[in-house]
Amino acid sequence: MTGGGYAVLVSHLGKSYRVGRRGYRANTIAEAVRERLLHPLRRTHYEEFRALDDVSFEVPWGEAVGIVGRNGAGKSTLLKLLTRVTAPTRGRIELGGRMGSLLEVGTGFHPELTGRENIFLSGSLLGMSRKEIRKQFDSIVEFSEVERFLDTPVKRYSSGMYVRLAFAVAAHLETEILAIDEVLAVGDAEFQRKSLAKMRDVAKDGRTVLYVSHQMQTVTTLCTSAIYLERGRIGYHGPVDGALERYRSSFATFAAEQSDPDRRPGTGEVRARAVSLSEESYEPAEDKVVEIELDANTGMIGTYFVSVHVNDDNGVVVIQCDSRNVGINLDPSRPQALTLTVKDLWLKPGRYTVDVFVCSSGILDAWEAAAVFEVLPVSPYPEIAGDDALSSGVVLSDFSYDARPVSKP
Amino acid sequence: MITPPRRFALPRWSELWEAREVAYRFAQRDILLRYRQTAIGIAWVILQPLASAGIFSIVFGQVANLGSDGIPYFVFSYMGMLAWNLFNNVLGRAAPSLVSNQTLVSKVFFPRMLVPLSSAASVLLDFFVGLVLGVILLVLYGINPGWAVVLLPIWIVLTLLLASGLGLVASALQVKYRDIGYMLPWITQILLYASPVAYAVSEVPAKLRPLFDANPLTWMLGLFRWSLLGAAAPPGWQVAGFAAVAVGLFYVGAIFFQSWERTFADVI
């Protein structure tokens, strides 16, 4: 047991990676030896990239903690350190019990092995003893609904069956602490619901769950508290609502930063100069219009194209509008002005961000959160039904029912 | 408790023991996979050493006319191949094992050492199948190896330690330098001819003899032939030397592996 009765105690944790030593790195023994012989005195210079820096927090028993943050904030690195997949550079972690990890679906699954063999292999890799697996075997099989195919190699399974079996093994891991990395976003809707319920039970049992995600919705339903990571540091640790608030408000600072082209990723051969929307807010069924102005680069050979993503507040990419799909390739020798009109897309009320990517063979400019718009809370449908008639689904749609009473044969 | 890795650390044997189920499942997987969807399955295990012993008999026994200390050449080279394959295959399977289990190494934690170590299991199974055929050959040729046969398990264990020690080093290096994958088969190929597998060490010219006597694989082959064919016992210093080299190399290999282990997920 750790001091203070915490399940997880992390103090001053840091992880650095060495990146691009002046664009050179030994990949073969010969290169490494030659480098040493040619420059015996040269100290190797690495640029240090701090994926995690001075992270300290503690998690009491029985809590389900969500770890949220933008891409590259260090969520997955933190999880890898906690599960000992990789070693920290600084600091220490104390764990009050056994830590089980679900960093992917189907850990150790081998396509040639049968379902039964894979249950034992994957279970043991996840840290279960043979006795535990035997004890849980029946309920794993029942949960996965593949009992008829237990002695069939999993390479002949449908992808749905495969995922169900893989998740079932993981869900029956009975460690005191469980680390999960977005494995819930798999399988059909029915199975997702079942998985979520299972995960909630885990937390209710007084065990501790660490859940990494950028799906805000699941974090809200699953977690009792949350940690918001920002560029490898802890930006917030407390109730889930607060973390979500931070995540959303980080859009503002993030968007401000991104408007400076020098701080954006991409080669910079062609940069977007300005991105604007025809309006600040739309009704759900209205056409959305994005105006993009692009700089010229006379030195560039060939053409480029533009891809626009529209993301909802939970970070889900709702649509991708790639100019190649409609036969638009742009000439870099002169500045360009583009108008993107999105028709027939019925968005749910809420806040949306627009990402603009300028690409040719690689990414020239990646401008995330280039623009923000609001979809007003009005219903585009002819009848007014309750909120529960609108709550499910990612988007709305222009649908119709055609009802024909059928007389009994 | 998780802290940054120290430079030198001894393997945590208790951790390995706790994860023995993983080793068992790895071994089971390797063995099952090798014979699933093969038409004649386990027969491959016998065919390989038989065919090489046959070729050796023709090339070295008949064409080159090398001696085999008065033992029928075919069974002499068969037993040599058996011991050699045990060493060579344990090393050869261990070396690429981490790289071929890449996804596991970068996704879950378990003592990494289990990957190269458990790859020895299927080789050991092959060895025993080959040994059964070897016993049949002994009966057919009417050879009685004598009391030394009881020492055979010791030589097997020592060979496993020797090959695994080298295998641990090779597998750890291969995570970073894929050159090992090209170098190793070439080195073992040379070793095969530089060691008295297909000929008796007594056939070696006196000038070169010290070189051969310094090769631990010569000692290994001598020990196996002593226990399996009733050949003359190797000198005592070779017995002691082989034990020391095997245990020593395994230990060095384990320490080397351990000090690289925690960077695997970052560089693989």
Notes on the structure:
The complex is a heterodimer of chains A (409) and B (268). Chain A is an alpha/beta fold and 409 residues long. Chain A is 24% helix and 32% strand. In chain A, β8 (225-230) and β9 (233-239) form a beta hairpin. In chain A, α4 crosses α5 (159-171). Chain A folds into 2 domains: 3-14 and 53-248, P-loop containing nucleotide triphosphate hydrolases (Rossmann fold); 266-380, abc- transporter (atp binding component) like domain (Coagulation Factor XIII, Chain A, domain 1, Distorted Sandwich), CATH 2.70.50. In chain B, α12 (216-229) crosses α13. Chain B has one domain. Chain B has 268 residues and is mainly α. The mean pLDDT of chain B is 88. Classes of the chains: A alpha/beta (409), B mainly alpha (268). At the A-B interface, α1, α2, β4 and α3 of A face α2 and α6 of B. Chain B: Its main location: membrane. Chain B: It comes from Luteimicrobium xylanilyticum.
Structural class of chain A: alpha/beta
Shape of chain A: globular
The low-pLDDT segments of chain A are none
* CATH homologous group name of the largest domain in chain A: P-loop containing nucleotide triphosphate hydrolases
The succession of helices and strands of chain B, N to C, reads HHHHHHHHHHHHHH
CA radius of gyration of chain A is: 25 Å
- Gyration radius of chain B, in Å: 20 Å
Instruction: Report the count of strand segments of chain A.
Output: 19
Oligomer type:
heterodimer
What is the count of helical runs of chain B?
Answer: 14
Shape by Cα distribution of chain B: globular
Largest sheet of chain B: none
Our estimate of the beta-strand percent of chain A is 25-35%
| Total of helices of chain A | 8
CATH architecture group name of the largest domain in chain A: 3-Layer(aba) Sandwich
How are strands sequenced across the largest beta sheet of chain A? 5-6-7-3-8-9
Q: Report the major sheet of chain A.
A: 6 strands, mixed
Helix content of chain B: over 70%
Helicity level of chain A:
10-25%
Number of folding domains of chain B?
A: 1
